Amino acid sequence: MGMVWRAAAAISLGLCEVVVCASVAQPGPTNPHPPTEPDPRLIFGASSNEWGSPQAEFDIPFGNVGQNCGYAMYAQRYHDAFGWNERGRAKIVADQRVSACANPNAIFYGKPLSIDDVLASPMVADPLHLLEIVMPVSGGCAIVVTSAERARRTRHRPVAIAGFGERLTHKTPTYAPDLLVTPVGAAAERAFAMAGLRPSAMDMVQLYDCYSITVLLTLEDSGFCGKGEGLQFVGEHDLSFKGNFPCNTHGGQLGFGQAGLAGGFSQIVEAMAQIQGRAGDRQLRSHDTAYVSGTGGVMSEQASLVLVGS
Q: Is 232 domain-assigned?
């Protein structure tokens, strides 16, 4: 997300005309000869293990490290505040799997999933189940950003960046100002204001979905429903490409797979494919506008894009 709007800004400033935004990831093999003193970053997923950082002093010694633990804290806090309807979280995963089953590039292509299947999968970090967490895969992605004039000369329908926003508030949930309010709210507000559009004008949403709770909080904080209304909203809408609120029509990272930063690119690629009318069997009838979100850390840094066909 950040690469794309920065590329657009550089082009707008006249610094360049064409920018390729790219990323690749491949899960590495297990080290057959692990070091005697293991690196806590490799074991726990911690990122600031050097003494002197708040994470090294206050998080790692007490086991509050890694993404699973952090996102579970968000889910616990959310349900304590707004009710323990876990089927709503599971429905997000199941609806997105419908779209993944229509996407030959998805890791779970042709493998349908029900709400009960999600809730029956092993508990990883209470209350998050295995199937509510992204599947790491190998993959890569590249997106070309260019000037509006040059885009009009290409053979596909140009997709314009109408608005963007980005916000960073904390490093780990230990230091989050409020576990019920995420940075994407401020990012989305700026993106929609810049585009001169409202959330209701979006034909689709492509939301970063490292965990099911990420989608739920992003729906609320981006303005598609009120705070605490996400579970009801999900229950009343079909989020698949066939439904009345298309969300992650490629299957999301929960159904498509997460190849590191390239996984986050998948939401942008899908929005572009839909707007250009190149999404194949999962093509939406209305596909002129898209809201796309990105997430870094543990709900630490989030970004928003509003994309429109031109």
A: yes
